[in-house]
């Protein structure tokens, strides 16, 4: 089966957002847009987990209860933090609901990232980034997070949602403006058959800038290459360039298109 037919069938079977359905009728570039949407969904939910971990690291590094209370008021006004004093301690962040999903991040951590050599957190997030799914279709992701000497985080990830199993590696940086910078690569493999395999590489760092009015971080810069392969085993490549102001440019085969597509890390 041609990959374009696989993706078109996937659009119908999984009831993607209206914007994707509209693109599916637009032109030959539609498979490129759908491949981007599948990829962006994973990047966005991983970015959400990383930003909450950055905030939690600030909380954990406080040496007094007054300090932790201050960080809690600043970053976690709508988040409940629970701790079970196991070994290592188990911290659970109960986040506010989005799209009807209960969302949690569980962190197995005793030490602050970046202060002690060799510290690695194991993190399990559930229910993040499922804007296209039903409330019962919860994503589950496991991250192993460590800090390098230059302050960047190195992240190894595996996970799944209602449609795909996922694996990725990330390098994550947080700059002084509050922006999140993501580098890395990964794969998504569909659970349904015939299988769709999506491999992506961030060729220029994806920069998500904060938008406090929406409590989001919006994609403002970066270059992403996506190679999708169906049962025909013929790879089909898309390239996506962020243009700023919520616009992206996409290239797929001989096609190219520019459109507004808000890729956002949502808290």
Which parts are unreliable, with pLDDT below 50 for 5 consecutive residues or more?
1-6, 11-25
What's the average pLDDT? 86
The major β-sheet equals: 14 strands, antiparallel
Apparent shape: globular
Structure classification? alpha+beta
Oligomer: single chain
- Please give the share of residues in helix: 10-25%
Number of structurally distinct domains: 1
Number of strands: 14
Proportion of beta-strand residues:
35-45%
Distance between the termini: 39 Å
Treating each run of at least 4 consecutive H or I residues as one helix, how many helices?
A: 4
The Rg value, from CA coordinates, equals: 19 Å
Order of helices and strands: HHHHEEEEEEEEEEEEEE
Organism: Tannerella sp. oral taxon BU063 isolate Cell 5
Protein name: Lipoprotein
Q: How would you describe the overall organization of this protein?
A:
It is a single chain. By secondary structure, this protein is α+β, with helices and mostly antiparallel strands. It has one domain. Helices cover 23% and strands 45% of the residues. It has four helices and 14 strands. Strands 1, 2, 3, 4, 5, 6, 7, 8, 9, 10, 11, 12, 13 and 14 form a 14-stranded antiparallel sheet that branches. Helix 3 packs antiparallel against helix 4. The longest helix has 31 residues, at 30-60. The chain is globular and about 60 Å long. It starts with a helix and ends with a strand. The relative contact order is 0.16. Residues 1-6 and 11-25 have low confidence and may be disordered. This is Lipoprotein.
């Amino acid at each position: 089966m041609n990959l374009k037919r696989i993706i078109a069938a996937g659009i119908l079977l999984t009831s993607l957002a209206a914007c994707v359905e509209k693109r599916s009728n637009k032109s030959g570039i539609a498979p490129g847009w759908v491949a981007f949407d599948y990829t962006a969904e994973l990047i966005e939910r991983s970015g959400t987990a990383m930003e909450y971990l950055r905030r939690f690291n600030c909380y954990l590094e406080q040496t007094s209860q007054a300090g932790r209370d201050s960080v809690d008021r600043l970053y976690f006004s709508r988040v409940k933090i629970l701790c079970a004093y196991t070994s290592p301690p188990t911290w659970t962040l109960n986040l506010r609901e989005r799209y009807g999903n209960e969302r949690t991040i569980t962190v197995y951590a005793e030490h602050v990232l970046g202060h002690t050599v060799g510290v690695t957190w194991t993190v399990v997030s559930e229910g993040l980034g499922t804007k296209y799914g039903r409330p019962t279709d919860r994503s589950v992701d496991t991250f192993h997070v460590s800090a390098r000497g230059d302050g960047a985080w190195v992240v190894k990830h595996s996970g799944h949602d209602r449609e795909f199993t996922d694996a990725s590696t990330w390098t994550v940086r947080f700059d002084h403006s509050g922006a999140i910078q993501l580098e890395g690569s990964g794969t998504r493999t569909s659970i349904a058959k015939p299988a769709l395999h999506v491999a992506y590489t961030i060729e220029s760092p994806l920069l998500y800038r904060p938008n406090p009015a929406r409590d989001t971080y919006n994609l403002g810069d970066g270059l992403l290459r996506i190679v999708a392969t169906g049962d025909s085993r013929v790879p089909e490549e898309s390239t996506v360039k962020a243009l700023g102001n919520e616009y992206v440019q996409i290239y797929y085969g001989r096609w190219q298109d520019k459109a507004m597509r808000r890729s956002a890390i949502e808290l």
